[in-house]
Amino acid sequence: MSELGIAERASEAEERVYLAPQWLLMWWRFRKHRVAVFSAIVLALFYTVALAAEFLATSDPGLPAAKRSLLPPQRVHFFDGWRPTLPYVYAFSGARDPVSFKMVYEVDKSEKIPLRLFARGFEYRFLRLIRTDRHLIGVGGDHRAEDVISFLGADEQGRDIWSRLMIATRLSLSLGLVGVILSMTIGIVLGGVSGYFGGIVDTAIQRLIEVLISIPGIPLWLTMAAALPQDWTVIQVYFAITIILSLIGWTGMARAVRGRFLALRTEDFVTAARLSGAGQIRTMFRHMLPSFYSHIIASATLAVPGMILAETSLSFLGLGMRPPAISYGVMLQQAQKIQTVALAPWVLVPAIPVIVVVLAFNFMGDGIRDAADPYGQ
User: Fold this and answer.
1) 14 pLDDT exceeds 70?
2) Which end of the chain is more exposed for a tag (fewer CB within 10 A), N or C?
């Protein structure tokens, strides 16, 4: 290729960058951050699980069964000797030890139970709209999945941990997302008002922020969560916990927005908006706020794991979501019993998705934060 052609291509590339909108520049930089892109894929998988939780569950997550109490995880087999075969599990039987009173389970290798795709199971509403009883994995024949499948074992009440984990993913991830949306909305509105108007309004809002920041977080969460009535439904507790976390988590965003508004309110484009007749609300949220959307998106991404950890901590302590609700924290409540953990370490499995989700959000947030400066090197 001639030097002229190379120069023309370079000029076209530069023009493409200068004419591209900000979101496209951010995407170009974000996709170069491989860890962030991989984290985004992981989070997309988690939220897909949240949408199709019942479809991925193998048994009713709230169905107790004494005969499966603390059942260990089952192994899925893909070979019959050395010959590949369709996946199957062995049947199991359990009996209580008369000396230790511990349930002892034995694998019955004489009975192979084949696994099936799109098998029938418990009934549910897919996406809360379509009534069905189809599940991704089930069993064939006269067996019931509730009686023979337990990929991750069962808890103390004999409830399938895999199925409960699918449902817990929906509740914990949605609570974190909704909580961040509410806290970001409060922070943006109050921070914007504080930075734009200044004066006594700014002083009042900043003193409120300082009071909230000075109160220790965990005792405040515990106090507010403990005040919830014991007879509230799962939905009521869900929204109450979301509002509690939102009312506490907006202060950081409010301060960041206030600082940006203080810096922007004397800029030429803000003055031009005022002279053209734009009202104060329009100037704030139509002209000033979009100039740092990238910072807000990055902050929101980094705030979601904090919300998820807060809900998990409260539920683990028995002051957040309560049974029959199923969240990561509710499932980890059994980990408070040292004896249960010693006998059945698989009850700690819900801690793994918490760690993975928090790390993925942090890595993706770092990638978005780096991409927020699209002209940076």
Assistant:
1) no
2) C
For residue 377, the model assigns a pLDDT of 46
CA–CA gap between residue 325 and residue 143 (Å, rounded): 28
Provide the whole-model pTM.
0.85
Question: Which tokens belong to 254?
Answer: 């409010």
DSSP one-letter string for 314-349 = HHHTTSSS-TTS--HHHHGGGGG-HHHHHH-GGGGT
CATH number of the domain at 164-371, out of 3.40.30.120, 3.40.50.150, 2.40.400.10, 1.10.3720.10? 1.10.3720.10
Q: Look at residue 3 in the predicted model and tell me its pLDDT.
A: 54
Q: How is residue 284 annotated by DSSP? A: I
Per domain, the residue ranges of the chain are 64-159, 164-371
As given in the structure block, the two tokens for residue 117 are 């795709």
Which residues does residue 152 pair with via DSSP β-bridges, in sequence order? none
Distance CA 224, CA 240 (A): 9
246-272 burial code (b ≥16 CB/10 A, e <16): bbbbbbbbbbbbbebbeebbeeeebee
| Token pair 């023309």: residue | 8
DSSP string, 231-274: T--HHHHHHHHHHHHHHHHTHHHHHHHHHHHHHHTTSHHHHHHH
Burial class (CB in 10 A: 0-12, 13-18, 19+), 336: exposed
Mean pLDDT calculated for residue range 102-107: 82
3-state class of 113 per DSSP?
A: strand
- Spell 195-206 as b/e; 16+ CB within 10 A means b: bbeeeeebeebb
- The per-residue pLDDT for range 247-262, each reduced to its tens digit, is 888 888 899 889 888 8
